[in-house]
Design brief:
Elements: H1 2-16, E1 32-36, E2 39-43, H2 60-65, H3 67-94, H4 99-122, H5 126-140, H6 144-152, H7 154-166, H8 181-194
Antiparallel strand pairs: 1-2
Helix pairs in contact: 3-4, 3-5, 3-8, 6-7
Length: 198
Amino acid sequence: MKRFFFASLLFLLSAASLPVNGQIVMDRKVRFGIIVEGDTIPYYRLKEVHVIESASLLSETEIRKNQKLIRNVKKMLPYAKIGKQRLDVLEKEIADLPKRQRKAAIKAAEKTLLADFSDELKECTISQGKVLLKLIDRETGRTSYMLVDELRGKLRAGFYQAFARLFGYNLKASYDPKNNKDDNLIERIVISVEHGYL
């Protein structure tokens, strides 16, 4: 009896899913569409596609020639991106704060940043530090000197610049991939890394 019942149920379900008089049975998924002049047009979200000029990617020769720079960019790029994210959060937090609370929030953010990354960044080479300064400018649109000046003041920025110059850094050096061939190479490496070519 049970077999007959299940067989009948299976037959009815399969018969209900067959096309009747040329009609197509939909798969019952929710679809989005736009109605234009009485005509329904399906709407699908597609994955984002990046169009890259072939000149933006590195050639095999350039990859072999610039292994050290590629390694440095790959190591420093995550720090620059994290720095940009934290800067955005900090700027939103301090936007409406009074001057005293603003200074306290900036000092607290600086302590957190040092606690999180000072051990890792102490092991970086001078060339990696220079790349990091360029990448910070790339991500934020401001040189490291400008960031220190805005957040900690001119005196602190001047002190950091003088100290950095002793080790061969320049906090005022801007990132200009259009006019500087070294910055252009860094930009092309970043594009290649971000799109999975390196």
